[in-house]
Design brief:
disordered N terminus, alpha/beta, two-stranded antiparallel ribbon, 18% strand, TIM Barrel, 8-stranded mixed barrel, globular, 272 residues
Amino acid sequence: MGRTLRSIVITALTVLAVVVGMPATASAAAPTRVGYDVSYPQCGKTLPSARAFAVVGVNGGLSTRSNPCLGQQLAWAWRSNGSVDAQPKAQVYLNTANPGQVINQVTTWPSSGSTPYGQCDGTNSMACSWEYGWERASNSILSFFVPVAGAAGVDDAPSHYIWWLDVETTNTWQTGSTEALARNRATLEGMTASIIARGGRVGLYSTHQQWARIVGSVPSSSNLASRPSWLAGSDSLSDARSDCRNPALTPGGRVTLTQYIVNGLDRNHACT
């Protein structure tokens, strides 16, 4: 009697599930589509176990310093689930700056080099600004990224990554004139050229307010034009989704990522 009644109840529940469209058994949860970006401030901290993709900072706050946790964080990034087709599982970003107005305080300012703006002669010029960007990106890639990435057992080919240029007012930039903004732009162009020469892809990270203060307008002839934009500044996922509809940082570009913060950790939304 008890066994017969139990069978009747189970059969009735199964029929009910079919009628109302409910699954008879629990279905597996869909993989997260949230991305994260991390760097040296997250060294030694527990990173999210569920992630669609991750962007790792190569530098330790300045372009002349390396992220001491780069290898571990790259390995973590490569274990992302890859559920967002348009976003590679592991990506990287570089710190940027142009200290040309304080050359006497900078040991890494170039003294020579052939550039699209002519020969660098060690002065605060468009040519030396471009050369500074080229050298800083090259050093970050060859001295910091490639050796550590290989040791971590992850892909160490620069050509297999998208390299985001982190453009923020917290770093040292030239100010006070349109010529200063043009020299800042030249530095980013030099970094872009260095990455492209190694087969990498380049994206631009900033807010519109910071970009306007640091770079200003970008001509369509610049190699910064048509690059994807990663916009910061959102406080929530809903704001991040809305930011996908904002203009790109440069002409011909498209907003592909937007950043927002939850519990002190940078999350990223992939624009579709």
